[in-house]
Each structure stands twice: as C-alpha cells, then as structure tokens.
Predict the structure.
Amino acid sequence: MDLDERKRKILQAIIRNYLETGEPVGSRTISKYTDLNLSSATIRNEMSDLEELGYIIQPHTSSGRIPSDKGYRLYVDQMMLEKEEQLSQATQEVREMQRMVLEREDKMEAVLKQMAKMLAANTNYATMISAPQVRGNKLKFIQLSRVDARQLLTTIVVEGNVIKNNMISVEQMLDDEVLLKLNILLNTNLNGLPIEEINLAIISKLKQQAGIHAGIIAEVMDAVAEVIKEGEHVEIYTSGANNIFKYPELADNQRASELITTFEEKQLLSELVQDTLTDETGTGIQVYIGNETPVKTMKDCSVVTATYELEEGMKGTIGIIGPRRMDYDKVIHTLKTLKSQLDTIYKKDDGHSG
Amino acid sequence: MDLDERKRKILQAIIRNYLETGEPVGSRTISKYTDLNLSSATIRNEMSDLEELGYIIQPHTSSGRIPSDKGYRLYVDQMMLEKEEQLSQATQEVREMQRMVLEREDKMEAVLKQMAKMLAANTNYATMISAPQVRGNKLKFIQLSRVDARQLLTTIVVEGNVIKNNMISVEQMLDDEVLLKLNILLNTNLNGLPIEEINLAIISKLKQQAGIHAGIIAEVMDAVAEVIKEGEHVEIYTSGANNIFKYPELADNQRASELITTFEEKQLLSELVQDTLTDETGTGIQVYIGNETPVKTMKDCSVVTATYELEEGMKGTIGIIGPRRMDYDKVIHTLKTLKSQLDTIYKKDDGHSG
DNA sequence: TGTTAGCACTCCATTACAATGAGTGCTAAT
DNA sequence: ATTAGCACTCATTGTAATGGAGTGCTAACA
C-alpha cells in the first residue's frame, strides 16, 4: 500500500495540475511538469499503477487521469503534516481579519457576518461561520420591571451572558411593593439553578407563593423555556454562495440548485457543524473530501472546517466549501492562522449581548 | 395607441401561452387556442401590428412572438382592475398562512421566516419579507441592574417595545444605593425623550451628576446610540432562491450568480423595500416588470411587492421575485389576500420582543 | 532490470452539412 | 376584411468526418 517517493511525486504533480486546470491530466504533461526527467512512457506505467491502487481515476479510456477521493486524502494528510511549522507568519488576508476582529463592533453577529464575507472574497469559495454555541445553562439573574402601567418587562440572564427579554401585559398596574416581592421570590428560588432542573414542583411552589400573580410567574417561566429552545438553535452565517458558479463541475442546474438550497436553509449546515464539533482530530482542522461530507448535497464538494474556541469553552465552526479540486494548501493555511488568532484574541471578550 | 378588443384578446392569448410554455408563440397556436375563430394568417397580420406597437417582440425572423415589457404591463394593469372584487374568498394557501400567523410564536422573526418559506413553496418563486421598520424613537425605560459583582446589565426600552441589552464590566462592586441613584438619574433625565434629542449637553450634564461613575453613563449612552444604528437596519428574510433554477431564462451561470448574490447580500433587496414603501400606488401592490425594477441585477425578472402595515404605522414589505413570465394572476391574488389578512389580523399584536 | 521510442488504437470534441419543421411575410383569391 | 397558398428564414437535430490528446503495448536500449 505504501507508495515510493517517485509515485508520490507523480501523484502530487497530477493533483497540483488538476487543481489548477480542472482538466484530466495526461502523462506527457507530467513528464514535462516535474523535475523527475522521465519520459511520458514511464509516467504512463506509474500512472497505471497509481490507478490500480485507487489514487487516481480515468474518466474514460484514453483520457488523462484525475485524483480520486483517496488520492486527495493522501495529498491533504501529507500537507497537514508539512505545514505545521510555518504557521506563525500570517498572510496578508488574515492580518486584515485580525485587524477587524480587534476593532470589533459590539455585536458579534456583525463580526461573524463580516468574517464570512471576507473569507469568501479571499478564497473564492463559499463560507459559513457558526456562532459559538452557548454551553452555560445556569440562571444568573431574573428581573421584572415595570415599563408602563400595563406592561412588565422580564429580563433573564443565563450563565455566559445570554440575555432574554419578554414583554408581559398585565390587567392592572402592580405597585412597587408587589413587584419587589415577585423579584425576590424569583431570584431566591431560581438563581444559580441549571435551567433543566426547573421542574413542575418548583414552578407550582412559585405559583402558590405568588398568589393572585401566579399568571405572571407562568409567563416568566415561558420566557425561561424559550431560552432553552433558543440555546439549541445554532446561528449560522454564510457568504459567497455565488462562488460555486466559478467551478463548472458544481455549476450545473441540478447541483447548483441543491447547494444554494443547502446554504439558504442552513438546516443541513448545522449538521455539518455538529459533526465538526464532536469529531475532533486534534489540530482543530478537518477536511471532508467529496463523499466524506456528512451532508449529502455536498458530495461533489470538499469542505474544510476549523473549530474555534472562545472563553468558557464556547465553540464555533468556520467552514469553507468548494469543489473537490480546492486549493487545500491556501485554505488550510488560512483557516489555521485565523483559528489561532481567534482562539487567542477573542479570549479577552467579556461576553456578548443579544 | 388604443387596442381594439380583438388585438387585446390576441395579446392576452400570446401572454397566457408564453407564461405557460416559456417558448415564443406562433400564429397557428393562437388561431386554435382562442375562441376567435380566425385563421393563422389573420392572426399573423394582427401580430404584425402588435409588434409595430411594441407590445410583442420577435426574437428572430421566422420565430414566434414573446411579450415585451410593455405588453406585460398592459396585461398586468388590466388584470389589477378586473380582480378587484373577488378578493374576499381566500385561497387554500392563504388560509394556511392565516392559521400560522394566528398561532404565532413569540418571535416575529420565526413567523416571517416561515411565511417567506411557505410563499416560496406555494408559488415556486423566490420570496422576501422585510420586518416592519420600527418608527418609535422615544426612550421609554432605562435600567441598570447588577448581575454579579463585576457586571452590570443595561436594559433600554424604546417606544414600540424594541429592547436592547448591554453588559458593562465595572472595576468594583457598586452598592444598591449608588445603583438606585444612577437609575433615577437616567430615567428622570431621559425618559420620554426622543433619541435624536439626546445631545452632548444632556450627556455631559448626566456625567457630571454621576460623578465618579461617569464612565458607566458613557457606556449606557453607547448602548443607546446602538439602538439608533440598529433601527436603521432593515431585517430581510428570503426563501426559495433556488426556485430561479426552474426557469431556464434565469438559470444560466451569469444571471443565476448575480441573483443568488443579490439574495445573499440583501443589501440590494433593502433598496427594493425602500422603493416599495415610498412609491405608493394605493392598492399597496406593486408590479415591477423587467427593467422597471430598481435593482439592476433583477432586470430579467419581474417583482411583485405588497406592503403590509402593523399597528403604530410600522410597515413592511413582502416581495415575490420570478421570471418575466410570472403567473401574475396567482401571485397578485395571493399577495393581495395575504396583505389584507396581515393588515387586519396582526393589528392585535402587542409589540415584539428582541 | 528499468527506461524509452514508436505505433496502433480509443474516445471525446469540434466541425461541417443536410434535413426538418415551426413560423413568417406577401400575394392573390374569396 | 379574411383566408389559402407559397416561398423564404432560421433554429434545431442528426449524422458523418476529422483532429487531437491520451493510453497500452511491444520492442529496443543502457
């Protein structure tokens, strides 16, 4: 199964060439392209072997060869090892991003959107970024405030500084004293409690103590329930979906339509995020080639993902989606650098507002 | 310029036929398709006239005719008049939506997204919905709360119940008394004030009165400023962008790429929203045919928009984007009905949380 | 034994060309 | 005013013919 040096060089040459042109590459091209000084005939013999081993494919008799998923895989794995050292020196593009993250506007949403956009512009592939998934689940703070005679405002803060607001309409104005009582009731009973542990027993106890204001307690609990629901939902920002039209192998109606839908719906993308977050490889960078992708609509694409981590263990995913013949070198390098920037820089963040 | 009855009928027949097939339609087809009982030769003469008048176009000598923008325009205008009466009886699809709006989940965002999705599924065109633009600008309520020793939570409520939260980190814990003072300071000075009227004079007065806590005031004011900025941003939800692939005239790479980008970026769509909201026709329904659209990337599309209105004069836009040969009849009818449902049903809304 | 030159063969892509057919414009007859 | 008939146009389709890129195989060579 092991390839000797020469075979590996030839395979590499085939892949490099194919990445550029997108056309099957023949023996003659390789003969000139490499510094091996071998005739096309020799190359042909080697290619024949490589095909038998499953690293390259011949679309039809008498055409050049293209890399198989297995071939790409070898290429990528090899590269992942080599590139390890020269990580430090950041490319121009990444510096740009770094600058942007540093002078971040308050809203993380805007930053992530911008980042997706820039990545897409720089790489010419489609990109996606998932917002860090909030892990904290303990209630930190609950407050009822009177906004006007008929309306109360619920403010709920969960560990990790996720904030939820909710308006409650009341029949008649509650005086300050009642409001204070309710606030104390809520905070003494719920503060520090993991949301999952709020059960019916607790709720009915609260309601009982609230007396005629049980209805308000019920509405507050509804709002708390919403926090859970929203927490399960991963926000995903995408950009550069139009880039798929730059690669003929993805641009036919059938495929393009499927891909565009995937990007628009985002449902499927969140599966990709889940997969990436669970299946860790150590480097934090994962490469899915063709059918390796967990999302079927992307079986003709390659996906490179990086997980980044903010403080408190909140993790998010950055993904780049392009054709199989993606510039893995550039993409992986960019993601690696960006990831390391994010991992360190963002750690000084004091949470995010919602 | 006026067309006689027969010419109008022929034009209508041409358009109807073209809407279905997407192919240029010939004289023979019309001769059989209509109940006019005219030979193809007669139709040919009439078609020749219609072409001279600019209502139809011949893609090349010896092909059938297709409608011009002017032709579509006549057709649509005519239809808008006719369809006025039979508005009341809602179609199945719209009933479905009505049901959904009624049992609305708390978050308007989810409802609008769902609505865009359903519309797209029902019409087979791309859709967009803009969230109602918030008009209210008076500060209703400001509060600082202590979440933990180092963190304060700012809660700002603006007229129309737009809510903004912001976390503030403090060096050392503020006691209850100071907090109460700051809250009173903020509310007595700012409550009921239009955001635009908060000027430097007011701010420095506040800071002065806050003494050593001027820094906190500054952060609160930053948060207020953000409310303004966010208010200017119109949220737009889209769905069914992939539907453009169902229409060959839009599905070629160049056009598809442009359209997809338009949908993804949303920047251009907001121009469309602005145009729709300002230029009122009375019915609340507008039809842009081909080059009439304010968005250049949509010059090969037709766009039908409806403005809906919630209480407090908050207006939003629903748009359907498809090929020139759109089923105007169905689309306009659907939008009209949906609009009237929204206008009435949603009026009972008590605002929305953010 | 590994490498190379040479040759026959395959298959795709391009081009050229004729046939088809839908559709028109025009004219003469009704 | 309407229609039948005819010549003409032009996109589309099908069918060869051609060229070229590339392979596999064999025989010669170092």
Remarks:
- Chain A has three domains: 5-67, 88-132+234-348, 139-232.
